[in-house]
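We treat protein structure as text, and this decision shapes the records that our systems exchange. Because each token names a local backbone shape, the row as a whole describes the fold. For reference, a complete record is included directly beneath this paragraph.
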Amino acid sequence: MKSWYLLYCKRGEQQRAKLHLENQNLTCYYPEVEIEKVVRGSRKAMNEPLFPSYVFIEFDEELGPSFTTIRSTRGVVDFVRFGGLPTKVPDTLIIELKKIEIHNEAVSTLPKSGDVVQVS
């Protein structure tokens, strides 16, 4: 039976890890959130990872690939573990994260014209 697991990836290599895991026919989930940033003096909406350096994967450990094969994937450091064994992530958590991601709107933390700003 398929279960979700959480992988810790090398910093900045989540996309690479996701690509190589998908090439192994694994289901990957890499939640992103759209935020607004100032880039070169102009505001831009950009996607950033909700959990930097982490990727969720779904697979059946009996059918494979093995935990070792997944850990050896380019960009992956290791599974998130509790008590030495890779820990399963509840399906309900993934469902809720996907709901939040779908309903996400650009979140602006930048001041707008007319906002009161306090400099300390």
Q: What stands out?
A: Strands lie at 3-9, 27-29, 32-39, 42-49, 54-59, 76-79, 81-82, 85-86, 88-89.
